[in-house]
């Protein structure tokens, strides 16, 4: 298996190049190592390589890794979250990337003992297979979240369609950026909406060109076990 430190060097070069192309500062882009397909040891290798943000998409593997990795990591929950699993993960994660319905917000708010940083997941491309709210549903949804004291909407998250067509991918990311700007302009106290969680192994460079601040990279960074 390739060393994470080598993968990271290549990915960071690509992110730097994407930033240079559009005049962004690479420090605005945080790399989340998505460790859902690898062992705890491999997640520890990511930390040792200097990546402090780890992403998981299921409660059980998340909690299992957290038994060993007890400090030094910022945890991101990136998968769809069942309401009945909220209690399990709430106290152990720093960001939830998959807020997509009021019932979930209600459960998070009910169980939370402190502010929970969330991304609202948006289905920009309108694909049936994707989770997330339709673009036009997002603003009314965020308005409703005002009622939930413990929820803070830090930004928006999306997944691009699984396609080789860069134009489709780019337009998805452009759409999320446009929506993020319009929401940030509203200056909601509970929803600053300054962040964009977009870009995975095969499309993170495009996402960074289009304004991503959190890229979620699994295969290209930590590989598959
Ligand atoms: C698995 C996953 C990723 C990482 O995917 P790779 O293609 O392996 O980089 C990113 N985001 C979400 C929501 C995922 O489920």
UniProtKB/TrEMBL annotation:
Q: Name one GO molecular function term.
A: pyridoxal phosphate binding
Pfam families recorded: Ala_racemase_N
Q: Which NCBIfam families match?
A: YggS family pyridoxal phosphate-dependent enzyme
Mind listing the UniProt keywords for this protein, alphabetically? Pyridoxal phosphate
Q: Which InterPro entries match?
A: Ala_racemase_N, PLP-binding_barrel, PyrdxlP_homeostasis
Q: Does the keyword Thylakoid apply?
A: no
Please identify the protein, giving its name as recorded. Answer: Pyridoxal phosphate homeostasis protein
- Where does the record place the Alanine racemase N-terminal domain? 7-224
């Amino acid at each position: 298996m390739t060393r994470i430190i080598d993968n990271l060097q290549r990915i960071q070069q690509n992110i730097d190049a994407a930033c240079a192309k559009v005049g962004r500062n690479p420090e605005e882009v945080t790399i989340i190592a998505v460790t859902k397909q690898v062992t705890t040891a491999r997640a520890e290798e990511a930390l040792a390589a200097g990546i402090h943000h780890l992403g998981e998409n299921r409660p059980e593997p998340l909690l299992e890794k957290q038994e060993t990795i007890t400090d030094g990591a910022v945890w991101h929950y990136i998968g769809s979250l069942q309401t009945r699993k909220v209690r399990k993960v709430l106290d152990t994660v720093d960001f939830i990337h998959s807020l997509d319905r009021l019932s979930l917000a209600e459960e998070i708010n009910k169980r939370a003992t402190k502010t929970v940083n969330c991304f609202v997941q948006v289905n920009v491309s309108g694909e049936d297979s994707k989770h997330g709210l339709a673009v036009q549903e997002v603003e009314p949804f965020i308005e409703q979240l005002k009622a939930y004291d413990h929820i803070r909407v830090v930004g928006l998250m999306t997944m691009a369609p699984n396609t080789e067509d860069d134009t489709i991918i780019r337009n998805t990311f452009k759409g999320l950026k446009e929506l993020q700007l319009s929401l940030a302009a509203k200056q909601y106290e509970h929803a600053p909406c300054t962040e964009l969680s977009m870009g995975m192994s095969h499309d993170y460079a495009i996402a960074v060109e289009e304004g991503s601040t959190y890229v979620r990279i699994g295969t290209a960074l930590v590989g598959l076990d």
